Amino acid sequence: MAKVIVYSTPNCPWCARVKGYLTDKGIPFDNYDVSVDFDRAMEMIEKSHQRGVPVVDIDGNIVVGFDKAKIDELLGL
Fold it and tell me: What single string gives the DSSP state of each residue in the chain?
């Protein structure tokens, strides 16, 4: 099973969509709220070179935004 991390904020509609999609597919993930967790926000920026959310880390592969095709590819769905 892939290690999945979602970097998100509570008021981000695309974050809600990616988390809902992973949940619907039965994919467990860790969610980090970068609006309140400075260390995780810096980690996200270091990994993705982006400040926008969502950022999804799938076994070290970074997906910026809700790119369903890329997420499916990396998860083998």
Answer: ---EEEEE-TT-HHHHHHHHHHHHTT---EEEETTT-HHHHHHHHHHHS--SS-EEEETTEEEES--HHHHHHHHT-
